[in-house]
Design brief:
Layout (H helix, E strand, L loop, with lengths): L2 H51 L11 H16 L2 H19 L5 H10 L12 H38 L1
Helix pairs in contact: 1-2, 1-5, 2-3, 3-5
């Protein structure tokens, strides 16, 4: 191959290789930032659930608002990933949604509804003692599953971080 052709060809190959390396480095930085953001969301969910667990009673609508806002963040993160991490985040999103939907009425509201009603049938269904107890049970059943799902997703993120350190 004549030198006149080889020099420009080598220059083009080196330029393309450099561009590919820079693109991979930038992609790696973006992936790392996305993983960090997702890990932060999972951390906030974990801490929120731990705080509610300390209440020793069912969490109310107001107390679950913070976790309710995180449902959309997890759903957004589900769309960012594929494979195992995506399925783990889907589990977190589903369990978190169900946990938030299991919000209980405040005990004071239930008490007030019963005291102001002249007949038991006058109490709205969502303010009955039975409804309150059902929500307590539902939250108690969902909480360990949600905690496990969050831990599994966090573990997967830790593994991905380690793998990406070597890539």
């Amino acid at each position: 191959m004549p030198i006149g052709i080889a020099v420009p060809l080598v220059s083009v190959i080196v330029a393309i290789a450099g561009w590919l390396v820079l693109a991979l480095i930038e992609n790696h930085k973006t992936d790392k930032e996305d993983l960090e953001k997702t890990a932060g969301v999972l951390r906030r969910i974990d801490l929120g659930v731990r705080d509610l667990k300390e209440l020793k009673r069912a969490a109310t609508f107001l107390e679950l608002q913070g976790l309710g806002k995180l449902v959309k963040e997890v759903e957004r993160d589900v769309d960012q990933y594929t494979g195992d991490l995506q399925s783990r985040l889907e589990s977190v999103a589903e369990l978190l949604r169900r946990y938030v939907e299991a919000a209980a009425p405040a005990v004071d509201d239930v008490r007030a509804a019963h005291l102001s009603a002249s007949h038991r049938g006058d109490v709205p269904a969502e303010l009955t003692v039975e409804f309150l107890v059902a929500r307590c049970e539902e939250q108690a059943l969902l909480r360990p599953h949600l905690e496990s799902a969050v831990a599994a997703a966090e573990m997967r993120i830790r593994r991905l971080r380690r793998l990406r350190l070597w890539n």
